[in-house]
Design goal:
amidophosphoribosyltransferase activity, about 575 residues, Rossmann fold, single chain, amidophosphoribosyltransferase, eight-stranded antiparallel β-sheet, metal-binding, alpha+beta, six-stranded antiparallel β-sheet, Glutamine Phosphoribosylpyrophosphate, subunit 1, domain 1, PurF
Amino acid sequence: MAATVNLSSTPSNPISKLPSFSLNSPQKTSFSLFPNSSSFPCKPFSHSLKSQFITTSSKNPISDLFPPNKSGPEGDIVSSFSDDDDKPREECGVVGIFGDPEASRLCYLALHALQHRGQEGAGIVAVNNNVLQTVTGVGLVSEVFNESKLDQLPGEMAIGHVRYSTAGSSMLKNVQPFVAGYRFGSVGVAHNGNLVNYRALRAMLEDNGSIFNTSSDTEVVLHLIAISKARPFLLRIVDACEKLEGAYSMVFVTGDKLVAVRDPYGFRPLVMGRRSNGAVVFASETCALDLIEATYEREVYPGEVLVVDKKDGVQSLCLMPHPEPKQCIFEHIYFALPNSLVFGRSVYESRRVFGEILATEAPVDCDVVIAVPDSGVVAALGYAAKAGVPFQQGLIRSHYVGRTFIEPSQKIRDFGVKLKLSPVRAVLEGKRVVVVDDSIVRGTTSSKIVRLIKEAGAKEIHMRIASPPIIGSCYYGVDTPSAEELISNRMSVEEIRKFIGCDSLAFLPFDSLKKMLSTDSPKFCYACFSGKYPVMPREVKVKGVGDSMDDGLNTPLASIDGHWIKGPPNFDLEKEIDPLYQESKI
């Protein structure tokens, strides 16, 4: 279930020319950068918006690029999503801790707080006397670690990782953090995100003799660090990251340093905090800081590298001149916990306002408002408060049901929604019900939920979705279906309403979402709603290699890598997609 790896690490040469800060001071610090770097944080841009309620169609030209009946270059590709788990999946969460004698145990607790970001693999790397020691395993954090495993991870510095992945025999070797030795010592890395130029980088490295042990894009980063000619170690990371395209929030550890880095667009979140003893903590969300009693200080800025060591404290530099941030809006819609601050905003407040907007722009006569738990609850509370209608628990979620997609029978798989969600007849019978959910991906789960509520005696069912229609896949660290599987890419709102069987359906208007974000609006990525990608993907996204093996498909492994598949000969994704959205004002 878990594997332990011990690797020695030679300390890197200290960096003496960067500004330093005391590790023992819990108060906030100001951070200087190398000359000619952009200032942090980015200055806000004004953005004029008009509100437009989506009532007729979410169909988009992206469906012309990926029509429903279009096969991949190697034949038909079956969906990687379970009908009973029809949501985008965040692929991982990361933690880094420096300067605490119980670093690995605090890391373990922080990973518990981030468990919602990945449930199928977890790992911790701790540093003791310049030696990197690793425990990784398949399963939940509580299944991978126990007292004896944590005893194997002494030291005052540690990084940790939780990940979502498809089931498969290759999964364990892809569980992070990864640790590798190179000529100057050893380095461990935990990564949240996806690299859109992964295949090109891997091909270049393999042509030069690199040997890969996993199918993860994170391994590319380790190879780039190993071949870099830059000195000292921190500049090796900078040199490697300058070759990366896409999303990455990463924490690195060596024998004496903890490093945090965020890509220039800031797609995925990464925050910094401090414990009362001066220990520095990095994490994907502030909820992890709360659990281990660390005080939130600030975000790691887009394009920033932070290095922590005993000699110089916390040092900051600019990774590269960075563009306007494009932070993932789905963190506020679905992924992050409501009690987290993400991108400097309260997730709870965002979702509550989403519900209020729906109540204002898509009102309907109703008797009760319910949520699809758990991610729809806060938006439903906002809807109910604005509409002046009582909120009640009409659906009860069981938290003790395993993932149903591993069942071999489709008939059993369809039964999974009933195992997870139980309708409360006393709340629903004879009522006109508004059902608030965070999103609709393929529509399969929504149709089953509507059927459950009807069977419980509801008079009318009105679906309200606290996000705009999803018409594009994410290439920046979120596991979504390919574009042709997304129901809003193939159908209008009315067609979706008929498909799921409700009496009315409304999505959060896209323009209202941007208006709510105000001056922060230009800093968010909306690619899943618009198809306009800040960093163009190089390959067509279809499914993970683990899915192909598990589904018994005949897709050659040479054509699938991670979540990518080669396009047809002479296929240029940027030329195909960009003209469709050149009029978009995102």
